[in-house]
């Protein structure tokens, strides 16, 4: 790519990133961009970007706000139908890594330091030099003909007027490689959501948006990330991502059923000496009884907290939910840094909630 085009492309990327950074709160509360998510990129709808240019010359218009007409007079054509083209937006591609970087900068998120008692290892092959033996698929053509030229010049048979190079077996050169094991910290996220009758469509949309940004940040910190989804009313079960956000609301609420399933999944699949574990629970704060709440606190204190990096409780507001559970969990774990609590009254609170959850870099 020519240098000037590459510079223009980088300039455009910086403009797009600046626009995303300036409107980050709006994007975090808008589900449109998540619907345009690919494996590594997100298409973000932006208005048309016009790069300002200075024009030199005599100003013949008299300046801004000057000319014919009186104060308060309607501008001709305002609000009327027209026959001219309007402004159009476009979808700008932003990588998930860039989104994570913007998120970290705007929310002042610290880098996460994995516990890393045991890490996964991946093998990467890197070409490190040139060898005299190797497979034909790795033959280095330029180095091979350079060796042939040196041999013919040294032997006095090179004729620059009739340049003919015929490599021999000894002239062959091949790329050599070295395999290197690189540690990759592994992490698992367990999302837990109350889907009882008091959790409506808007509440689940808030959870969906927050989960997207949490995923984006954690994927930037871990090479290997697994995600599990748990829903519960009076009974808890594991589901896929689509079901997690689409299931209909019904039934009562027994939060302890979800905690018991979280503990079971961790025990069976995620030994804490091998995994960095994050649990994000979302609810409107309603639970069936104080006795079940006591069971929740016991499960959390004795079974879940000893195994996790972070237990995050986010309470979304519902006109039907009492909100009591947030007060209960805050009273029980007020001094435990592994437990982070956040109120999420509406979509505009998503940005602050993520800062609450991830701001300590656990």
Describe what this molecule looks like in 3D.
It is built from ten helices and ten strands. The chain is an alpha/beta fold. It folds into three domains: 8-50 and 89-108, no CATH class; 120-181, no CATH class; 185-358, 3-Layer(aba) Sandwich (Rossmann fold). Helix 3 (96-107) packs across helix 5 (201-221), helix 5 (201-221) packs across helix 10 (350-358) and helix 7 (255-269) packs parallel to helix 8.
Total count of strands: 10
The CATH H-level superfamily of the largest domain is von Willebrand factor, type A domain
Order of helices and strands: HHEEHEHEEHEEHHEHEHEH
Biggest sheet, spatial arrangement of strands: 7-6-5-8-9-10
State the major sheet: 6 strands, mixed
What's the number of helices? 10
Descriptive keywords:
six-stranded mixed β-sheet; 362 residues; 10 helices; flat; Rossmann fold; alpha/beta
Summarize the helices and strands and which ones pair or pack.
Blueprint lengths: L2 H20 L1 H5 L12 E6 L43 E6 H12 L12 E12 L9 H15 L18 E11 L1 E9 L6 H21 L2 E9 L3 E4 L1 H6 L8 H15 L6 E8 L6 H15 L5 E7 L7 H9 L6 E6 L5 H9 L4
Parallel strand pairs: 5-6, 5-8, 8-9, 9-10
Antiparallel strand pairs: 1-2, 3-4, 6-7
Helix pairs in contact: 3-5, 5-10, 7-8
